[in-house]
Amino acid sequence: MKPELMIIATIFFAFALLEFLFTGFFRKAGQRRGDISVELVSSLMLVAVTQPLVLSAGAATAHFIAPEAAGALTGLPVVAGVALFLIFDDMTQYWWHRASHTFPWLYSLHRPHHNAEYLSIRVVYRNNLFYYALMPGLWFSGALIYLGLGWIYAGYIMVKMAIIYAAHSDVRWDLPLYKIKWLSPIMWVVERTISTPATHSAHHGKHANDGVTNYKGNFGNLLFFWDILFGTARITRRVPEAFGVENLPETSAAEQLLWPIVRRPASAAKPA
pLDDT digit string (tens) for 46-71? Predict the structure, then answer.
């Protein structure tokens, strides 16, 4: 296993251990039958199949378009390389995520992520099996790796996944920091730069009228800055009382994983 993958796995299991010790990793409030199955299948599929295949396909596509460009960006400064990944991976994921809450067919691929009525490290990769295969950021990342930025991607993806894990976990690292008065100016910058448990939990809230939930915003993954820049941010430093989706019919584990192959008689679910 590559070193960066080992580090990412270690960070994941560290958060899993924290949840096991403090918030209950296997038994979450609101957990329903089928939740663990959806999370296990979708996570294993992404890590073992979808992500490596799409990265390879992105590199192969770049090679087909520009066979002479392999390694062309190898000497690029680190800052410039990171900027490319922030734009072509993280920013495009922001727009992909935003589109997932706009177009009904795409929301049907993303709804499993919100169907969990809890936040946890368990839901990070919880999506329909086709959702990540279509994600532009993975294809662009594969192309950038082909162009010679693989070593920068290794460092970038470790930082990105650490922030995403921390934002989804119900072990809130930000809560005690908000209570320290002299840290307030620093936290003001932090919560407008990266995703935090408070800002991301607002996106998972169930009730739009609770004063915290921002289901149609707070889309950022690594950078919350995209929400600030594009006008979709809500910052309250509070966590919604309930998580999940409202005003939508129940769905099965099979439909969550395999829509549109497995689907209700009705068409794609309307974004909540």
Answer: 999 999 999 999 999 999 999 999 99
- Which is nearest to 220 in space by CA: 232, 205, 238? 232
CA gap 129, 38 in Å, rounded: 10
* Helix, strand counts (H, E) of the chain: 13, 0
Q: List, in sequence order, the alpha helices (H) in 46-103.
A: 51-65, 78-85, 92-100
CA 79 to chain centre: 23
Nearest to 155 by CA among 8, 13, 1: 8
The length of the chain in residues reads: 272
Dihedral angle sign, alpha carbons of residues 38, 40, 46, 50: negative
Please tell me the distance from the alpha carbon of residue 15 to that of residue 90, in angstroms, as a whole number.
22
Task: Read off the pTM.
Answer: 0.94
Token couple for 162 = 């650490």
**Residue the block writes with tokens 């070193």:** 3
**pLDDT tops 70 at residue 268:** no
CB 245, CB 206: distance < 8 Å? yes
Q: What is the pLDDT of residues 206-260, one digit of tens each?
A: 999 999 999 999 999 999 999 999 999 999 999 999 999 988 888 999 999 999 9
Report the amino acid identity of residue 175.
L
